[in-house]
Every structure is written in C-alpha cells, then in structure tokens.
C-alpha cells in the first residue's frame, strides 16, 4: 500500500480425501453397487465404454450389461477447489473481484440428459452439434453411433440406458469463474453534504460474469439440465444519511 493506493489479495485452497475402510456384508447389501471398499464415498460405478462398433455402429460396453459389470469407478470428489479475491483502492475508487476455481470430473451433457434427453441421434429433436460426427457406413470410426429414430432397439437401449451409465459420460468438469466484481466511486464529502448525505457512492456490480471451462454441458458447477447461474449486472447509488 501507499498513500493513495492499496491492494489486498486473499487466496483459499481446499483439498479433501475420504476412503471407505470397512463395510461388513457390503457385497450382499443394497449398497453393493454403490460403494467400494478402499474407494471414496462419493463415487459412481459405471459400465466401461468400449466405443462404437465399426461394423454395426452400435455402442459397445464391457461385460454382459448387468449391475455387476459396472466396474469403472468414477471419483466425483473435487481434486481441489478454492478462490482468489483481490481488492484495489485508488483515491476514491474501489475495485473488488473474486475468481472461483474447481478441479473435478463430472457428468457431461450425455450424462445429465439420460438417453440424450430421450432424443436419439437421428430423430427430429434438437441435439448438440457433436452428434453430426456419427457412424454411417461399415468401417467408420466415429464417436457417435448409428442414427436411429427408435426402431433400432439395440442402439436405442444403448443410447437410452447403457451409455448414460457408462464412464464415457464422465469428463473434465473443471472451471474458473469470475464470481463477483464490484467497482465503486465515492463522491467527495463536500458534494455528499450538499446533497444532504454524509456519504454517497456510485457502484457497478456483476455476478457470474465469465466462466472458463472445457466442460461439455450447460454448467460445470451444477452439472444438470437446470439453467446455469444467471449473469447479473447492477448499477446503483448508495446514500449514507447523517
């Protein structure tokens, strides 16, 4: 800090781990397909996705597709999370902002919309542009399987039931978000007093203004079909009366 300028920074960082050490009778309990001894509590057991069959265009998974075949363990605990806040003041100006960051994995669009939102690639519904890169002919290598309007029962079951329960839908959901920003100008005391106030400030505030992420979905924070946090920009006057 100096006579006219002041800068303050605060950083917080959190990382946590947990592990299921013991669960007598786990294999015969109703939690047999929920928890794994030696793994964290916040996990998801999923089918292991093998890709699109280049001959048929059908999604393939390891095993015979029953609950015991969910051998892929997805750790949904954040690796770390935290925030960096800065506060600057120069003469009558005050600037404050907070960046939030999270390193994590999560369910993407295909995981939050079970069965692609019940709209199979090939049916007359809105779908993400990624489904254009799809299997069309035997020998094709593509990330999206054969199109169907629902008449291909094998592919329909794969899209609707198995793919959303596989490890294919769990991807990097890390993000950095400009959570809050505030810019304030404090009017000189003589002007405030002339207007009958002890103190007057003009401010501009914003919330959820920017998000940096490679996440494929609506929002990496809530990872659901709900709307992302709304962006707010507010301008106002603050009067402190005598």
Structure explained in plain terms:
By secondary structure, the protein is mainly beta. It is 10% helix and 37% strand. The chain has 4 helices and 12 strands. The strands form 4 sheets. It has a 6-stranded antiparallel sheet with strand order 1-6-7-10-11-12. The mean pLDDT is 91.
Alpha-carbon distance between the two ends: 30 Å
Count of runs of 4 or more consecutive helical residues: 4
**Structural class determined from secondary elements:** mainly beta
Compute the number of strand runs: 12
Helix content: under 10%
Note the beta-strand portion. 35-45%
- Mean pLDDT comes to 91
Précis, in short:
This protein has 242 residues and is mainly beta.
SSE layout and pairings?
Elements: E1 5-14, E2 43-46, E3 49-52, E4 59-61, E5 72-75, E6 80-90, E7 93-103, E8 105-107, H1 109-112, H2 114-117, H3 153-162, E9 170-172, E10 175-186, H4 189-194, E11 199-213, E12 232-240
Antiparallel strand pairs: 1-6, 2-5, 3-4, 6-7, 7-10, 8-9, 10-11, 11-12
């Amino acid at each position: 800090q100096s006579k006219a300028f002041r800068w303050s920074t605060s950083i917080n960082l959190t990382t946590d781990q947990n592990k299921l050490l013991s669960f007598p009778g786990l294999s015969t309990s109703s939690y047999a397909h929920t928890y794994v001894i030696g793994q964290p509590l916040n996990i998801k057991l999923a089918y292991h996705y093998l890709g699109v069959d280049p001959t048929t265009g059908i999604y393939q998974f390891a095993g015979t597709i029953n609950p015991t075949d969910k051998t892929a363990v997805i750790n949904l605990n954040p690796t770390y999370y935290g925030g960096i806040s800065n506060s600057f003041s120069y003469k009558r100006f005050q600037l404050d902002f907070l960046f939030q960051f999270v390193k994590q994995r999560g369910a993407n669009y295909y995981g939050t919309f079970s069965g692609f939102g019940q709209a199979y690639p090939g049916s007359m519904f809105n779908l993400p542009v990624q489904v254009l890169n799809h299997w069309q002919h035997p020998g094709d290598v593509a990330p999206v399987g054969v199109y169907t309007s629902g008449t291909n029962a094998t592919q329909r079951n794969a899209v609707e039931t198995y793919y959303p329960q596989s490890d294919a839908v769990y991807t990097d959901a890390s993000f950095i978000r400009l959570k809050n920003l505030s810019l304030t100008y404090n009017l000189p005391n003589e002007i405030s007093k002339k207007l009958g106030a002890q103190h007057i400030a003009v401010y501009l505030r914003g919330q959820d203004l920017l998000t940096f992420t490679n996440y494929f979905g609506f929002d990496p924070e809530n990872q659901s079909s709900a709307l992302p946090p709304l962006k707010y920009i507010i301008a106002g006057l603050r009067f402190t009366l005598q």
